[in-house]
Structure formats: structure tokens, C-alpha cells
Amino acid sequence: MPQTAVYPGSFDPPTLGHLDIVERASHLFDSLIVAVGENSAKQSYLSVQDRIEALRECTLDNPAIQVEAFSGLLVDFVRSKSSRVVVRGLRAVSDFEYEARVAMANRRLAPEIETVFLFTRDEFSFLSSSVVREVAELGGDFSGFVPEAVKRIIERSRGAGRA
Amino acid sequence: MPQTAVYPGSFDPPTLGHLDIVERASHLFDSLIVAVGENSAKQSYLSVQDRIEALRECTLDNPAIQVEAFSGLLVDFVRSKSSRVVVRGLRAVSDFEYEARVAMANRRLAPEIETVFLFTRDEFSFLSSSVVREVAELGGDFSGFVPEAVKRIIERSRGAGRA
Amino acid sequence: MPQTAVYPGSFDPPTLGHLDIVERASHLFDSLIVAVGENSAKQSYLSVQDRIEALRECTLDNPAIQVEAFSGLLVDFVRSKSSRVVVRGLRAVSDFEYEARVAMANRRLAPEIETVFLFTRDEFSFLSSSVVREVAELGGDFSGFVPEAVKRIIERSRGAGRA
Amino acid sequence: MPQTAVYPGSFDPPTLGHLDIVERASHLFDSLIVAVGENSAKQSYLSVQDRIEALRECTLDNPAIQVEAFSGLLVDFVRSKSSRVVVRGLRAVSDFEYEARVAMANRRLAPEIETVFLFTRDEFSFLSSSVVREVAELGGDFSGFVPEAVKRIIERSRGAGRA
Amino acid sequence: MPQTAVYPGSFDPPTLGHLDIVERASHLFDSLIVAVGENSAKQSYLSVQDRIEALRECTLDNPAIQVEAFSGLLVDFVRSKSSRVVVRGLRAVSDFEYEARVAMANRRLAPEIETVFLFTRDEFSFLSSSVVREVAELGGDFSGFVPEAVKRIIERSRGAGRA
Amino acid sequence: MPQTAVYPGSFDPPTLGHLDIVERASHLFDSLIVAVGENSAKQSYLSVQDRIEALRECTLDNPAIQVEAFSGLLVDFVRSKSSRVVVRGLRAVSDFEYEARVAMANRRLAPEIETVFLFTRDEFSFLSSSVVREVAELGGDFSGFVPEAVKRIIERSRGAGRA
Asked: Is E27 a catalytic residue?
């Protein structure tokens, strides 16, 4: 049976670290759904539409990758896609504990769904969406942290990068 | 002299992990006060009254356990109860550092009060009040995470669990 | 193309935690090779033959799983099996850092090979081969830590469990 | 060439732990600029003016130490001072990961700037500005956590310490 | 019922950190047994007799404390003393994980025995028996790390401290 | 006064990570002594002479760097060089705790000596002497992990790299 994996996240904005996980995960499974979380309780930096557009532009050349919005419980979304695999990236010890808890909670909610982890490539281990947001908001040069398409969409949406 | 221990927390809501610590701590000391913190600065999920009611229902059969609200400095509350022992649960490395800092600050404020730690039972190591809140708010089944009485009170107070 | 994954370890002895990873990994990939490391520099507890026999007995009913010995560099073994995927279990923060280093070193040696991680099921998070060895050597009851077949082979090989 | 180092932070309020780093760092380099961050997005406990006044009072007797406000990207401030060295204190593992990420992000933004770390003296390892704020707001005695000058300014500004 | 707690360790040699835990634990329970492990597989620095002598000298004035040797499984020793409580000190994150595993393994072997943890006082958080051994063997002044009685016994047994 | 810093280690063998710290530390202080530890108790991989030769070859073009052997207590060596600064690299959380303990023990032994830390560059965060030794002994290609001079000396001394 072909395996479809789901890579969920807020991707606010997507970073080079996220895209690295996307590419590597797409080689492990037959198809990959990048699931962009809508969190109504939290003010986002980019809109879900912008984040989806950015991820689609960055993955255009790989037909095995789809980008979709999701809300509600992750396990419900994964089941609705007939997937049994969630992919997550791990950068650091602090990620580890948070991810371990989420994975264990999800296993209780849906024992048939497995969460697999990939270590972030070392050159991106410091990188997070919040670092990008902070550097961008302070007018710093964040072009080394995100793909070109993401940079363009951040500048269009936030008017950042005027420096 | 009989030892009274205080187990403080926000218990918002109480989880099976909290109740496990309550029960185990009650065997170590002559009596145990579960102290439910009122934090006026933070919007709570359940009211203090609901949290106290839930904890009382879950500990009805153990006369050595009392449940009370507290506000202000923990060490002042502990002293007011003629106790010299604070009990806390430890789940993970991130707990460890936070708890270590709080315990050390409390020792400076009240050197005669000792903080003792119990490791959370492994099957609850992923479990936190915030996991319960998140699953409940997204309409997921959180009945494996809390005692029956807590589930009922969450549903009554929040109207959750309609799924 | 069908994916073959390699799950390497010393499995000295195999524990219930190892077998849990074996089973879960076998659902993620088309076939799984459990690779039992021969480390000539270190005195082992069970012989490689015993460890292989134990793992084979425990995985008899799953034809997608093979058990083999390996020595030398892991990436050379993985390549020799035409595999591009290594599977490892993660229990704790201390595992995390060691595993991160090994995965990064292996990526330098063989960039085409991906290492994926599964979190150990919470009820086995404390469990390691060294815990089993220590309890067994002190005459304790380790039957809750290993499959029945492993217990039998430890007793046959070490004369343990006489208590 | 004489080395000027920059020790940035929010110092809200300055603690004995911060002052310990200030003093030790001032011995390592020819001059030290304590850079008090203005974070317009976050409500501060003390005003930048109060924090600067407090730090200046505590470092009056050391002419090699200057206290200044800064806003914007840290690396821009460091360059504007013709400095190439940032100093930070490390208390705990959780600091470690945050600090590692910030240092790596800054290295991408300004490769010529080096970040050096000093471990907080063990008797201050639990101490943070947030511990001081919390104890002060609850009416506890925080005089063991901050220099006398800081205590006075907190009481003047917040009306705390009335107990 | 009076509570007897067991504080096990190798105490090779006992440090000021160990003695701090001994004293604080003795206030929490009615009596405390300091259990000095004999590990036949490992070459010790001080003999079990020397370690017991040192601990006894340091706890002479507290009749609630006994010092004894133990070998075999800890849980068997605890049961033989009619105790249900094990005490351990925690210094750091690395301690945390090791201690969590041992506590969980012991709970599987003896569910009625509880392990409680005390955080090491911050001024001893760096201190371990191995630091003492290393400084002593290199001829350094280790008198700030151990009680006077321990220093004397180390010098008598090892001929250290000649510098 | 010109600052001389000491960078101690076993450097067995020196890696690209060590050389990165050497170069960055040499920019922070007026001169840098790389201190190669002789540990008589532990069998080393390369002889002290080989390690010193390797480090000297790699630092030939920087007259501010000296390479020397040391034995005994580090603080005694640092004092004998009229230095007050020790430099260490930090890669990961596990480094952090070990280094924190050593730094605190050294502060007790020599309060006037300060230990400063630099984070290892992210692309070397996985790299350690033991990784190099293991890959070299298994016949793997370790040329991406060490400077050319180190590679040559390892091959000369160990006959490694024949593959």
C-alpha cells in the first residue's frame, strides 16, 4: 500500500529548515501533505493563504507534495487523508520534549497513527519561524533564513525588508 | 510530630497525572493539602471553585487529603498551615529546570520549608493540563486523560465534549 | 520503489522497548532489517548469535522483518542492503543528543541515507538493555522488561534468574 | 586593539545574577557596555530609564562600564559601538538552547561578532528577573535577589515591598 | 506508622552535597538509613568500611540516622528494612534522566516503594564524588568539597593531600 | 594588561570543531595557549607529541597561538602562565552540564580565574574526537572531520585510512 505522510505545522513563515524537512520526508514516503494549521486563538504573522501560497511555490516541482490548510485535531485530519504517518522535525532538546508529549497524546487519541521524526540539518538547527519574524520586524536581512518565495511574500504582506 | 505536606498547583484542570501524585504523596505524609492556586493575572480555564470541587470529588475516600484555594506567596500559605513540606511532580527535563528554580527561590524565602519531588508515573509523562484543554477545546475525546469527575465538570463548565 | 529500512543496535539483550520499535517500524516501510552490531572492542553480555536468535524468535510471525549481524560502518551496511533509511528509537533527552550526533555524522558519510526516529512508547521509556542486565545479574525478576524468548535465552546463556 | 564588549539584556529588573556577570565581564575586556533593550512590543515592569538608572548606580565605581539603551537588531548596536564581542550569562539548560539559537542567528547576520558566555555563579543559578517580579508583586521579601539600589527603584516605581 | 527512608548511594567519597541531603531527608522522615552500595564489579576509591566510617562520623549527633552497607537489588534492601521510601538527590538535568529511569525500574520491581527527590542545594550543584576524587588525585585542595572527617579518611586511605 | 587565555582539552585527535574554537578565541584575547592534557590514567588514541604536532601545524600562521602539554590541575597550569582566562567550546546540552560543573569546581579552586564559553559553529555541532576515532578505526572516510595535517598524523600513527 502506498504511504501518505502528513507534515503539520504553523509555518508562520516557512523557513529553510521546514523546506529541508519537506524535501527529505517526500523521499521517504509515496506522497506528502504539508498541513498548515489554522489557529484561530493566536494572531498569526502571515495569513494561512499566504503561508500555503509560499509553501506551494517552494514545492512546485515535486508532484508528490501537496499543501493544505487544516484545523481541529491533527489526528482527525490525518485520518481524513487515509494517512497513518505524521512527520515532524527535531532541532533541539526543547523541541524534543514538546514533540514527545504531542506524539504521546496523539497516540492515545489515535493508536494507529505513527509519528516519525527527522533531525533538522545542522546548519538550520538555530532557525525558527520566530527568529525570522523577529529579524524581519527589526528590519534585519532575513534572506539567509527563508526561500526566495517566502521572502517575497513576507515583504508583500508585511512591508518588511525595506532597509 | 505528624507531617503535613502541601501539593500546590493550578490544576486547570486536574489530570490523572495530578491525581497519581496526590495519592502517592498522601502515603508519604500524615496529611496532604492540595492547594489550588488563584492567579488573578491569568484567565483560567476552570474557575477555582470548579477545580476545588473536582479535586474534592476525586479524593473523597481519603480523609487525610484536604483541598483548599491559595493565593499570594506559596511559602506564606505553607507556614499558615504549620507545614514544612511542599510536594511537586516531575515529568520531564523542562519541568526539572522550572521546578528547580522555584524550589531554590522558596528556600531563600523560607529556609525551613523543604520541597520534595515525585516522578510522574511513566504512562502520564506526556500529560498536562494544557494537553487536556487543547484536546477538549478541539472537540477531541479527553476521557483517557482525566478522572470521570473532572470530565463531568469540564463538560458542565465549558460545554465541551459534545462530539 | 519499495523501501527497506535498517534498525541497527546492539540489542544486548533485546528489550520490550526494542521490540516495540521493530513492530512499529515494520508498518512504516516495506521491509525491515534488524541489524545486530558486533563490537569486537567491547565485551558483550549475550553473544551476537544469541541476540540474533532472540530477535528472530520474537519476529517469527512477520515475514517483512529480517535479523542480521553487522560490523564496520553502519552506512556501508545500509548501502550493501540497497536501503536508504535508518530507524532509531528515542527515549529521552540523553538519547536525543547522542542520536543527533550519530545521525549527523552518518549524513556526512552518506548524504543519501536518512535517519528517522520513533519515540519509545511511554511505558518503556525507562527501559534499556543495561537495566535488564543489571537486574538480571543481581538476581532480580526481569520478566517484565523483555519478551519471553529473550528471558529464556538470557537464562540459558548467563544462568541468571535462579532466584 | 582594546576590546569593548556589549552585555545586552532587558534587565527588568537587574538582579544580583546580572551584576555578577557585569563585574566578571568587565575584567575580561577593556570596556563593557551594558545594553538595556527597549522592547516596544512588550509591557515592561520597570521603565528603560529606571533600569538604566539602577544599573548605573550599581556600577558607579567602575569607569570601564557604561550603561546604554538600545533598540533594533543587537548586531547593529554592537557594530555602532565598534565592538565585536557580545557577552551573555548562562544559568541552565533552557538558557543554553535559547542562547545558542540567538548566537547562531547573530553569527549569520554579523559573522565578525563573537558571542561569549559566562556561567552564572551557582548561588544565583535560580535567579531571574521574573522571579524577582513575581516575589515583589506578591509582597514577598526580594531583598536577597537584587542590589540595594535596584530594590529602592522597584519600590519607588512599583510601590512594592510595603509588607 | 513511623516512616523509615533509605538514602542509597556509593558515597565514594561522601561530599558536602551528600551530607546536605542526609540532613534534610532526616527532617522529613522519622528515621533515615544511609545505604552504602558495595559494587563488586567496580574498583572503588575508598573501601566500603572507610565510606561507612566517614558517614557515621559526620552523622554522629543525629540518632535518627543509621549508616549501613548494602549489596544486591536496592528494592530488596529497602524491603528488608520495612521501609517504603527511597530518597535521592538531584543536581542537574543529567541526574534527572538517570534517576528517572532507576526510579521507574524500581517501581516495576516493587510498586509499593516510592522514590522521593530533593534538589541539591545550589552551592553544591557542581559537586560530585568524581570531582573530589579527581582534585584529590591531582594534589589539589579539596577541603571545600567534603566534611573534615571525610578529608581525614581520604588522606589516611589514599595518602592524598600531601601538597 | 594583555590577556592570555588558555584553551585546554585532550584533542585526541583535534577536530575541525576544535580548530574553529582556537581561531575564534585567538581573536578575543591577545594570546592563546592551547593546552593539551596528558591523562596518564587513560590510554590515548594519539600520543601527546602527535597531538601537539598536529595542533602546531594547524596554527603555524598565527603567532599569537602557542601549543603546550599540561598535566595536573588546570588551575595550576593557568596560574603558571599568568593567565586568568580559560576558554571552552560548547556543542550541546550534555556538554553544558559537564562544563558547568568543571567551571564551578575550578572557581572554588581559583576564584580569580574566569571560564568563558564559545558555542561551536553549527556545522560542527555533531563533531567530537570520539566520532573521528570511531570512523577512522572502522575504515571510514574522516577527512571531512579534521584538518589535513591531523588526517596525515592519524594515518601515520594509527595506520588508519587504508580503505
From this structure: no
CATH of the domain at D137: 3.40.50.620
Does B101 participate in catalysis according to the annotation?
no
pLDDT of residue D124: 87
Q: Quick check: C20 contacting B, CB < 8 Å?
A: no
DSSP notation for A120-151 = PPGGGTT--HHHHHHHHHTT---TTTS-HHHH
CA distance A49 to chain F (A): 33
How many Å apart are CA F110 and CA F105, to the nearest integer? Answer: 9
Residue B5 buriedness (CB in 10 A; 0-12 / 13-18 / 19+): buried
Mean pLDDT of F109-135: 92
**Does residue B112 belong to the interface with chain C, where contact is any CB pair within 8 Å?**
no
Contacts of E8 (CB under 8 A, 6+ apart): E35, E37, E70, E74, E77, E86, E88
Per-residue model confidence (pLDDT) at position D97: 80
Q: Which residues of C touch F92 (CB under 8 A)?
A: 97, 100-101
The CA distance from F87 to F100, in Å, is: 13
Question: Chain E contact for C72, CB < 8 A?
Answer: no
pLDDT per 10-residue tile (average), chain B, 163 residues: 92 97 96 92 90 97 97 96 96 79 91 94 88 93 95 87 42
- Cβ D6 vs Cβ D33: under 8 Å: yes
Known catalytic residue at E42: yes
Report the chain A residue with the minimal C-alpha distance to residue B137. A72
Chains meeting B at 3+ CB pairs closer than 8 A? A, C, D, E
D163 pLDDT tier (thresholds 50, 70, 90): very low
The radius of gyration of chain C's CA atoms, rounded to the nearest angstrom, is: 16
Does residue C99 have a pLDDT over 80? yes
Length of chain B: 163
Catalytically annotated residues of A: 18, 42, 91, 129
Q: 3-state SS string over chain F?
A: CCCEEEEEECCCCCCHHHHHHHHHHHHHCCEEEEEEECCCCCCCCCCHHHHHHHHHHHCCCCCCEEEEEECCCHHHHHHHCCCCEEEEEECCHHHHHHHHHHHHHHHHHCCCCEEEEEECCHHHCCCCHHHHHHHHHCCCCCCCCCCHHHHHHHHHHHCCCCC
- Residue C66, classified by CB atoms within 10 Å of its CB into exposed (0-12), middle (13-18) or buried (19+), is middle
Compute CA distances E117 → A42, B111, B114, B118, E31, whole Å.
38, 17, 11, 6, 16
Give the sign of the dihedral formed by CA D128, CA D131, CA D134, CA D135.
Answer: negative
Compute the distance between CA of residue A45 and CA of residue F52 in angstroms, rounded to an integer: 53
Range in B99-108, C20-29, F93-102, F104-113 with the lowest mean pLDDT: F93-102
Q: Which chains touch C (3 or more CB pairs under 8 A)?
A: A, B, E, F
The pLDDT value given to residue C74? 96
* Chain E residues with beta carbon closer than 8 angstroms to that of D93: 93
Closest residue to D114, CB basis, from F24, F107, F115: F24
* Domain range for F34: 4-159
- Mapping DSSP to helix (H, G, I), strand (E, B) and coil, where does residue C20 land? helix
Nearest residue to A45 via CA among A95, A69, A11, A91: A11
Q: Give the separation between CA F145 and CA F124, rounded to whole angstroms.
A: 8
Q: How many domains does chain B have?
A: 1
**Closest by CA position to D135, among listed D123, D147, D143:** D143
Output b/e per residue, D95-120; b: 16+ Cβ within 10 A. bbbebbbbbbbbbbbbeebbbbbbbb
State percent of chain E over pLDDT 90.
77
